[in-house]
Design brief:
Chain lengths: 237, 562
């Protein structure tokens, strides 16, 4: 049964019709990827799930519960956690304080400690730099911190918005390794990526969106073979 | 070719900016009016000190902007910068002596020229101005090349001496009140300014203390660190106890006039701590903050004043209503501006502040609030027969308020709510995505700030015994904001230091009240250049802004020591 379902969602920014009848679903424990060109509406789709953007029509459901009735901070308590595009870490706070903020909804001190340990095992770099002001971290470290901060909230569903953006190939690999690890631990992941090649390697299924419309949805294998996808998103001709 | 140009560039540019600034200071009459006060009797006046500080400051900035290398370039630029500044003044004197500028510039008087040229006529006078400008530059260059510690010692000991001179009216009666110690005051001060020997001793004393602290302070700190938990606690408790004793004894040490100043500073500390929550903690720029001060005052007036004649509650009975209504209006203002950020929020709140002031002033509400005449006969506060009437007594009331508010601020800062404010200040959207309820968090910030402000307003009403609409001008909001910025955003001690500097100092220097706003502006600009994080910053900001500097300085020092 689908864990997260987006059904016929329409969303607007003022008069701009950004999402036109988007539907997609993610099963429990699955990695699903969302690919599309700049401005296609990928981030907007994620925002409707995390409550930062309210759909004008349609519904978003988590295990049957309607999320569109909830506000963003309430959706967080349901375990839907977004890692925003461009990292958006708290630049003036230290690494530790950023992680603490991630655990804002968690009131159990012991649980927070366990989560911090978990994050530090995933990203040993963050442990070395836990007292450093986050704004002075390198781009890659900031991405790790953004993911670590999201993990502090015990995500059931993790929404990753372009985690590999602007990173060197080595770091991209390591971020994708982390995604695989989280997947093995049972986290459900929706991955938005420009890097379609990498995304389709880790995902089991994928959706392609163009100007706010889902134009294609298939298994990752089939998408990798699909000519249109290869041309438009994997840089082949 | 480009090399030579860029070599001069910073000195000339900074010098031109500084020259214009100094001209403004001279032409608004500040130099002349400051000239009436001596810092060191018969030797140097406040006006001269002002110009000299300006000259040295400009030279130092020029040097700093040129670079931090060991070469001659920064020093050269310091001298150029200060000399150019001197050149501007010299130019003013030349032009002023040839044509009468007074028709347009009232303060361009022969008196000013005489002061600038140290009384010398003709070419000699011009020469002296240029020479002094250059001298400032040389001094600035010397400061620049000196090691950090020495530089700090020199700056601090000289500024202590200047401060002692400026605040003579404050310091003299305080020392004089201590019986036998009164001789010290005779020896330090003349009727107008420090004595020569007094000023030299102050400089030497501060320099020695500073050096000793710099050399041994680390030992003392580590010695303190090595002490057992119990004795550390003991030291903390006794320090706390001493602070308490000083705070309690303060009005009696300082006397009537200074206690009055203290009460004003105290009211601003209350206001500042409230606005600090809204602006410093939660990052929302609120320019209508004075509205809650007004609401606190007027609620107290309406509930207590027999002149208005509705109720005649005591101060203590009215106080909870004042605070609760303040909080209520805080939330009420908060709701419509929930979606606003930055400049828009500032404008909207500014409007709210004005609306409240105009309402209070209006004829429409006159039967209830007294209109332009305000309302009087507000009773003084009293506890079990002890009345808070004189400034010395009211001081204790305000002190109690400050302690309460400092305590609440401290607790809030470390709380869950404090963290939510911090996250919101950094990034609203992400804060929301972390599970923070933006609406509640924002409203709580407005409510807390408004509550503190209303408390201050209630005490203000009782202190004055009457309320008038004109006490609640926008300029109060601006003042509070300035003191937070100068003290250090988000920092509790910063608010206290800021209030002392921006409210206390002007009260002490009443004779120069007309330059108050100019000095505010200058202070803000100087702060932005020298200490963008404020006088007593919140620890985090300090780390971030000076991270580079600290690394640069932290490294070479061990190598020079060995
Ligand atoms: N806050 C906003 N206000 C107005 N229009 C917006 C806003 N955010 C996004 N849009 C518009 O909505 C459309 C979809 O944007 P979205 O950010 O979802 O694209 P995206 O697929 O994530 O692109 P990218 O790969 O560049 O991040 C774009 O046309 C964009 O200009
Ligand atoms: Mg995007």
């Amino acid at each position: 049964m689908a864990m997260l379902e987006v059904e016929n969602v329409h969303a607007y920014y003022g008069k701009i019709h950004a999402l036109k009848d988007i539907s997609l679903n993610i099963d429990k424990g699955e990695i699903v990827t969302l690919i599309g060109a700049n401005g296609a509406g990928k981030s907007s789709t994620l925002k409707t799930m995390s409550g930062l953007l309210r759909p004008r029509q349609g519904s978003v459901r988590l295990e049957g519960e309607d999320l569109t009735a909830l506000r963003a901070h309430e959706i967080v308590t349901r375990g839907v956690i977004q890692v925003p595009e461009g990292r958006r870490i708290f630049g003036q706070l230290t690494v530790m304080e950023n992680l603490d903020m991630g655990a804002f909804t968690c009131r159990d001190k012991q649980q927070i400690k366990t989560n911090i340990d978990k994050v530090f095992i995933l990203f040993p770099r963050l442990q070395e730099r836990r007292r450093q002001v986050a704004g002075t971290l390198s781009g890659g470290e900031q991405q790790m911190l953004a993911m670590g901060r999201a993990l502090m909230a015990n995500p059931q569903v993790l929404l990753l918005d372009e985690p590999s953006m602007g990173l060197a190939p080595v770091l991209v690999d390591s971020i994708f390794d982390t995604i695989r690890r989280l997947h093995k631990e049972g986290t459900t992941i929706l991955l938005v990526e420009q890097n379609a090649r990498m995304a389709l390697q880790v995902a089991s299924r994928g959706y392609v969106i163009q100007t706010g419309v889902v134009v294609l949805s298939d298994s990752a294998e089939n998408l990798q073979k699909n000519e249109m996808v290869r041309k438009a998103y994997m840089g082949e001709n | 070719m480009t090399q030579t140009r860029s070599l001069w560039e910073h000195g000339v540019k900074t010098g031109i900016i500084g020259g214009v600034a100094v001209l403004v200071i001279a032409l608004v009459g500040m130099v002349e009016s400051f000239h009436r006060r001596d810092i060191i009797a018969e030797v140097i006046t406040m006006g001269q000190v002002l110009l000299l500080i300006g000259g040295v400051f400009i030279g130092y900035i020029a040097a700093k902007r040129t670079g931090s290398d060991e070469s001659l370039a920064p020093g050269l630029n310091a001298v150029i910068g200060s000399s150019v500044t001197g050149g501007f003044l010299a130019f003013l004197v030349i032009v002023g002596r040839l044509i009468n500028l007074r028709a347009v510039l009232v303060n361009a008087s022969p008196m000013l020229y005489k002061l600038l040229t140290l009384g010398h006529k003709g070419v000699a006078g011009i020469f002296i101005i240029l020479l002094i400008g250059m001298g400032c530059g040389v001094f600035a260059a010397a400061l620049f090349y000196l090691p950090r510690l020495t530089r700090r010692v020199i700056i601090l000991s000289l500024s202590s001496m200047i401060i002692a001179g400026v605040l003579q009216d404050l310091i003299r009666p305080v020392i004089a009140a201590w019986g036998p110690v009164a001789v010290v005051s005779e020896w330090l001060f003349t009727g107008n300014g420090l004595t020569v020997s007094g000023s030299i001793s102050i400089v030497i004393l501060i320099a020695v203390v500073m050096t000793a602290w710099a050399l041994k302070g680390q030992d003392i700190k580590s010695g303190y660190g090595n002490l057992s938990g119990g004795s550390q606690r003991g030291i903390k408790i006794s320090a706390f106890f001493m602070l308490a004793v000083v705070l309690l004894a303060l009005p009696h040490i300082l006397g009537l006039f200074l206690s009055e100043v203290l009460t004003i500073v105290g009211l601003y500390v209350l206001l500042g701590l409230g606005l600090n929550i809204v602006v410093g903690y939660a990052g929302m720029l609120d320019l209508g903050y004075v509205a809650f001060f007004a609401i606190g005052s007027y609620v107290t007036a309406v509930l207590t004043s027999p002149e208005l004649g509705f109720f005649s509650l005591t101060f203590w009975q009215a106080l909870p209503f004042a605070v609760v209504l303040g909080i209520f209006f805080g939330v009420l203002l908060g709701i419509p501006v929930l979606k606003m950020r930055g400049d828009y929020l500032a404008i909207a709140t500014l409007g709210f502040g004005e609306i409240i002031r105009i309402l209070v002033l209006s004829d429409f509400l006159r039967p209830w609030l007294g209109g332009a005449q305000g309302a009087g006969k507000i009773p003084k506060a009293a506890i079990m027969g002890y009345q808070f009437i004189t400034p010395q007594q009211i001081y204790y009331l305000i002190l109690a308020g400050c302690i309460l508010v400092v305590f609440i601020s401290l607790r809030l800062k470390g709380s869950r709510l404090g963290r939510a404010w911090m996250a919101m200040r950094e990034d609203e959207d992400v804060a929301q995505a972390m599970g923070i309820n933006l609406v509640a968090t924002k409203l709580l910030a407005f409510a807390t700030g408004a509550g503190f402000s209303a408390l201050s307003g209630a005490i203000f009403a009782s202190k004055l015994g009457s309320v008038y609409p004109h006490s609640f001008n926008v300029i109060i909001s601006i003042n509070i904001l300035c003191l937070i910025i100068v003290g250090g955003m988000g920092s509790i001690p910063g608010v206290i230091v800021g209030a002392a500097a921006l409210v206390g100092l002007p009260e002490l220097l009443r004779e120069f009240a007309e330059y108050r706003l100019l000095v505010y502006g200058a202070a803000l600009v100087a702060m932005m250049i020298l200490r963008p994080e404020g006088l007593w910053p919140e620890v985090r900001h300090k780390m971030e802004l000076h991270a580079e500097e600290e690394n640069n300085i932290g490294e070479p020092e061990p190598s020079t020591a060995t």
